[in-house]
Amino acid sequence: MTVGRVIGSDAIEDARRRGRLIVEVMPGDIVTALARDSAERLGLKLVEGPVEMPAPVRTDGNTAMRRVLYRRAPKWQAPSRKPRTARRLAKLALIGAGGVGGNIAHLAAMADMAAEIALIDIAPGMAAAAALDLNHATGITGAGCRCVGGETLDMVAGAEVIVATAGRARSPGMTRADLIDVNARVIRQAGEAIRSEAPNAVVIVVTNPLDEMTVEMLRATGFPRERVLGMAGTLDSSRFRHALARAAGVDPADVEAMTLGSHGEEMAPIPSRATIKGRPLDVFLDPAQIDACVTDAITGGGQVVALKKMGSATIAPAHATIELIDHMRGARTGAVPVSVMLKGEYGIDGVVVGVPTHLGDGGLIKVEELRLTGAETTALQDAAEAIRTRLGL
Ligand SMILES: NC(=O)c1ccc[n+]([C@@H]2O[C@H](COP(=O)([O-])OP(=O)(O)OC[C@H]3O[C@@H](n4cnc5c(N)ncnc54)[C@H](O)[C@@H]3O)[C@@H](O)[C@H]2O)c1
Ligand SMILES: O=C(O)C[C@H](O)C(=O)O
């Protein structure tokens, strides 16, 4: 008589620790549903049946054993989605208190992530009104942060993190690149004030065209690349994940996916690294569906502009900015896409483009160099060349 074993979730925990586990399964053994669930939750891919093994398949009398191989599914460390508790900033400053800046202030205040939030906007009274409005809510929310608002850039003094959203948003029919001249003036002015008033701050640029404005901010502040970050990849990745989740009929939380490249026509969503429930996309979607999700991510911002008629998306961009601040203050971990000045990574030098990064207190810790497909690497390099051309570099 053959006596089977139960392969339980403890074996899967062991797999997680080792990154790889081979379980030899006798006829009659049972792999529990809990074990399968654990493997999925932990991102371990379960492959059953005969697999190519370095060791010979052992036999037990006449009974050949089958093997079950748990492999770690794709390789980049995906960002953690659930914010953990983390360091509170002494001061967060927001240059631009319009649609995106105002929503960032709201999210930051509700999360109590800074002792002080300074809102700055040239529109008379606008930032002061927004700050007062946020402070009025604290009687209900109990949030302990203090919001202040004004019109002068010297209010950035003492800020650890500064987010620049000041400038114009596009209207239907415009590309983000059409904003380059008008917004470069605003970013230069903001950068000069930051250089003199907050020389140790980390700056997150949001103003479009994003990659080009991040270069302008680097020039105006003279800061090292570690302290000038462009926000777009977290937004574009969220749109990509949303599109994939809708197509596959799963929750967005079941999807990991990143977009790199420019925040424009040359955006480069990376299907080869994306997973749904820890498995490659082609387990759930056919190539035409994947292509449609790529297009949806690239055109997502334009879709909002077309519907809104005046201005562009504000809520998802604010969340995507908060995601970066959360990475910096240790509330989230893992690789996160950010537009940074590259120094040879991915074969690109001297231009800002969106790549996977690790962030900490002082901004950029490192650029993570993923192994991409040939087509994905070419898309990333083409994006860099397009940004370089637009900047006349
Ligand atoms: N990177 C991204 O993913 C992303 C996402 C959304 C929006 N954006 C960009 O962010 C920018 C802001 O978008 P929005 O929806 O908040 O626009 P908005 O018009 O609602 O707000 C912009 C604010 O900037 C202020 N401003 C202009 N010049 C200023 C200056 N010199 N100093 C201080 N304040 C100044 C304006 O008074 C206005 O209140 C746009 O360029 C938009 O394209 C980027
Ligand atoms: O699309 C825009 O112009 C705004 C922003 O870049 C976005 O992607 O929502």
UniProtKB/TrEMBL annotation:
Residues 234-388 form the Lactate/malate dehydrogenase C-terminal domain. Residues 91-230 form the Lactate/malate dehydrogenase N-terminal domain. Keywords: NAD, Oxidoreductase. It is an enzyme of class 1 (oxidoreductase). One of its GO terms (molecular function) is L-malate dehydrogenase (NAD+) activity. GO terms for biological process: lactate metabolic process. PANTHER family: L-2-HYDROXYCARBOXYLATE DEHYDROGENASE (NAD(P)(+)), L-LACTATE DEHYDROGENASE. Belongs to the LDH/MDH superfamily. This is Malate dehydrogenase. It comes from Sulfitobacter aestuariivivens.
